[in-house]
Amino acid sequence: MKNNSFILEEFVNNAFNLKLHLMEYLSIKECDLDGFLANAKINLANLHPGDALSDVSDFYTEIVGDRHLADLAAWHITSKDYIADTLKLQQRFSRDIVLDFGGGIGTHALANAMSSKVEHVFFVDINETNRNFVEYRAKELGVEKKLTFCKTIKDSQISKFDTIICLDVLEHLANPASQIEIFNEIMDSNSIALFNWYFYKGEKNEYPFHIDDEQIVEKFFKTLQSIFIEVFHPILITTRAYKKIR
Ligand SMILES: C[S@@+](CC[C@H](N)C(=O)[O-])C[C@H]1O[C@@H](n2cnc3c(N)ncnc32)[C@H](O)[C@@H]1O
């Protein structure tokens, strides 16, 4: 097991070998990698069918394929200080049985798996390519025994989690309020959940897949305040820690 500062350093240095993993997993040549990453954000936005999409989750199961890997990788590499702060935050709270819901390219799940405070990480993501890519990364990094990959929380067959990580996911869900109610049911009084959200499609519709409906967002905040109480931390103001009210 590695200590916290070593894990952070490894992320800042090479995002846990992310570029190498992308090249190997997607068979991309080194000379093509930078172009692949540079165009990722706009390519993902262009894939979104707008109002024609009847079920929000179809975007992640049927449409994005491996394009979300590129978008998330580009983001984690270009915003590494921000991502490093989210890792610092989870180092403060993560312990024992961890759920990483909507785990993407696996940065948080892999870092948690490297931590001696964490017994096991359940990586849940609706996108099969993401699950397979992170499983591949876990083997490359030698932490595969501490990770289980699932499409849904139910597939994990775990009824209580000590830590829940749900970062940059809630705005991708049709009903974020019902998702945090589900989290509430699988936490006990000592569990901590880390959430952030960005209910905004962007100035130029860069994030057409984000939910920004006023009623949905209001229901989310009312639910959040009715079931959780915030636990203060001084690390990152955009990402909040919560425990159950009762
Ligand atoms: C913007 S990414 C965030 C990834 C990661 N948490 C991070 O901070 O880099 C959103 C992720 O949520 C996943 N996702 C979307 N809807 C989901 C759902 N209903 N259940 C599980 N995962 C979902 C997507 O496949 C994607 O990997």
Topology, pairings included?
Elements: H1 4-14, H2 18-26, H3 30-38, H4 40-47, H5 58-63, H6 67-78, H7 80-93, E1 96-101, H8 107-114, E2 118-124, H9 128-141, E3 147-150, H10 153-156, E4 161-166, H11 176-185, E5 187-195, H12 214-227, E6 228-231, E7 240-244
Parallel strand pairs: 1-2, 1-4, 2-3, 4-5
Antiparallel strand pairs: 5-7, 6-7
Number of strand elements: 7
Bound molecules: S-adenosylmethionine
Radius of gyration: 17 Å
CATH architecture: 3-Layer(aba) Sandwich
Our measurement of the CA-to-CA distance between the termini, rounded to an integer number of angstroms, reads 34 Å
| Fourth-tier CATH superfamily name | Vaccinia Virus protein VP39
Q: Describe the biggest sheet?
A: 7 strands, mixed
The percent range for strand residues is: 15-25%
Under CATH, the topology can be stated as Rossmann fold
How would you characterize this protein structure?
- With 246 residues, the protein is of the alpha/beta class.
- The protein has a single domain, classed as Rossmann fold (3-Layer(aba) Sandwich), CATH 3.40.50.150.
- 48% of the residues lie in helices and 17% in strands.
- It has helices at 4-14, 18-26, 30-38, 40-47, 58-63, 67-78, 80-93, 107-114, 128-141, 153-156, 176-185, 214-227, and strands at residues 96-101, 118-124, 147-150, 161-166, 187-195, 228-231, 240-244.
- It has a 7-stranded mixed sheet.
- A hairpin with an 8-residue loop joins β6 (228-231) and β7 (240-244).
- The chain is globular and about 55 Å long.
- The protein binds S-adenosylmethionine.
- S-adenosylmethionine binds next to α6.
- S-adenosylmethionine (SAM) is lined by residues 57, 60, 68, 72, 101-104, 107, 124-127, 130, 167-169, 172-173.
